Amino acid sequence: MTLIVAYTHPFSRGSIHITSPDPRVPPAIQPDYLSNSADLDILSRAVDFTLRLYETPPLKDIIIAPVAPPFSKSDSDSEKLNKFSCEVISTVHHPVGTASMLPREDGGVVDHDLLVYGTANLRVIDCSIMPLLISCNIVTLAYAIGEKGSDIIKKANGD
């Protein structure tokens, strides 16, 4: 049996930057997992809750020895929980928000018309405009953003 702690709404914000004018050169991606202290606290509490589940019937009766974390609830403390959380962190979500639709002063990249700030005709019309994660697959939002973006472009061109 596998229990996984999946933290799907992190507060931490990473960054992505162009590294070359050549579009074939990969960008510099810095996810900055756990850069917001609330994320580590929430994740560590979730691991602590999982340890309590391990010791609760009927799970207690069928788990011979947990593989991770490598300590029991009675042997855990906030330092161990934080250390373990930092060692095993990874993503299970669809990263979004690299070109967030937010006010420019809040770190936004595009406005409500999906125009990149400081440009006259460059738009971003994909899930990178989403400033926050949602608790579902993002494909339907990709379609909705595409449809809305096409409507905005048609309106801007007088269609």
Descriptive report:
The protein is mainly alpha-helical and 159 residues long. It has 2 domains: 15-88, no CATH class; 104-156, no CATH class. Helices cover 32% and strands 4% of the residues. It has helices at 37-54, 59-62, 78-88, 139-156, and strands spanning 15-17, 28-30. It has a two-stranded antiparallel sheet. It is elongated, with a radius of gyration of 21 Å. The termini are far apart. The mean pLDDT is 91. Keywords: FAD, Flavoprotein, Glycoprotein, Oxidoreductase, Signal.
Show the helix and strand layout.
Elements: E1 15-17, E2 28-30, H1 37-54, H2 59-62, H3 78-88, H4 139-156
Antiparallel strand pairs: 1-2
Helix pairs in contact: 1-3
